[in-house]
Amino acid sequence: MLFAGVQFKSVPEQPNDAALMDRLVHRDSTALETLYDRYGRQVYSLVLRILQQAANAEEVLQDVFLQLWKNAHRYDSSRGPLGPWLFTMARHRALDTLRLKGEKQRHQEGELDFRDMVCSAPDPETLADREDQAQMVRAVMTALPERQRRAIELSYFEGLTHSEIAAAMSEPLGTVKSWIRNGLLRLKGELEAAT
Amino acid sequence: MMDCAQLAEHYEAYALGTLEGPELAELQAHLARNCPVCTPGVESARWLVSQLAFTAPQHDPPAAARARLMEAVRGEAKPAARPSSSFPAWVWLPLAAALLFAVYTMNQNRKLEQDIAQLDVSLHSAEAEQHALQVERERYTRAMVIIAAPGTQKVELKSAAPDMPALSAYVHAKMGVVIDARNVPMPPAGRAFQLWMVPKTGKGTPVSMGMYMPDKGGHVLTVAGVPSNMADGAALAVTEEPDGGSTQPTSKPIWVGPLG
Q1: Could you tell me the pTM of the whole model?
Q2: In A, residues 32-71, which contact B (CB 8 Å cutoff)?
C-alpha cells in the first residue's frame, strides 16, 4: 500500500521564510530581524571566509540584508528556498568586493540580476533539517582528498576559473574540471540520499 | 552547437562561475532563451553550489551589525521619533514660537515622508505585480513545452473523496512534471498541497516534488522538477501539509496516480 511505513511527524509552528518575505514586502522590519537572526551568522561566516577581513565582511553582510529589504518583492518563494538565494547573493557580493580590492575584476559588475540567484532545491527546506544538512555538507567535503577539496574551495571561496585553478595548483585543466564536478556530484548524491 | 544533454555536465561549473570558453557561451545562449531543460538544471546546480557556504568556518557577526542594519531600515521605513526638550520659564515665549514652528515643520515632514512611503509601497506593488506576471508566463511556457515534448506520459491522479476532481500529471523523465487541474478546493489556512514521488517498495521514502496552491478560481498549474531517482517511482501522490512543506508526508494522500 502506498505510504505504508511512512513516519508521520509534527511540524513546529514558526513563521516560514515565504511568510517572512511577504511581511518584508509590506515593510515589516521585525520580519527582517527574524530573517537576520536565522541567516545572519551563516551569511557573515561565508563572506568572512571569502574576504578574510571582518570590517569588509560586516559591510557585505549589511549590504546583503539591505538588498533583501529593498528587493523583497523580487523574491519568488515558488522558484526556490530563501537560504540558498541569500548565500548566492552574499557570495557574489563578497567576490565582487574581493575582485575590486585586488583590481582584477574580470567583467563589468552592475546591479545584481536576481534571476541569477534562483536556486531550486530538490526538497523544501525546513528549519529543523538545515543544521543536519550543513553538517552533512561539511562531512562530505572533509572526506574528499585534500587537493580535490582545495580545487573546489578555490572556485567557491576565491572565485577562480578552471584555468586559474589549474595554473594555481599546477595541475592539468582536465584534472581540475573532473575534481570539481565529481566532488559536487558526490555532494549532490549524499544530499539527495538523505532526503 | 551543443544540445541540452551535452550542456548538462557543465551546470555545476556554470553555477560556480568557473565555466569558460565555448561551453559558457553556449549555456548562456540556452539560458537567455529560457531553455526549459537548462534553466531548471542550472537552478538546481546553483542550489547545490550554495550548500558549500556551510563549509565556511562559523563566526558570529559583531553584535552592533544587527543594530546598524535595523537602524538603517527603520530610518527608511519609519522616521525616528524626535527627542523632546524642556526650557526655562523666562524664555517660554520665543521658545514656544520656535516650538510651534518646529511642530508645524515636523508635521509637514512627517506627512511628506508618509506620502513618499505610500508611493514607495505602490511602486513595490506594481513591480511585484509585473514580476508575478513574468513568472506566471515562464511557468505556462515551461508547462506547455513539457506537455508537448516527445516521451511525456500522462498520469491521472484520482482522489478517494467523491467531490474532489482528478488531477492530470504530465511526466517527462528529464524535463519535469506538470500538474494541471480545475475546481480544486483551497486547503485550510496555513496548509498547502505537496506533491510526492512515491518509490517502489524497498526503494526509499517519498521524495518531495514541491508545494502548490490552487488559484482563486480553483485552477492548478504547477511545474515540478523530477528527482534523480524518478526511475524508481511507483506513483505520484499529493498530501495536505503545513504551508512551509514537510520533509515526509504527515497526512494521508488526497490524490494518487500510478507511474507507468
Answers
A1: 0.58
A2: 32-33, 36-37, 40-42, 44-46, 48-49, 54, 57-58, 61-62, 65-66, 69
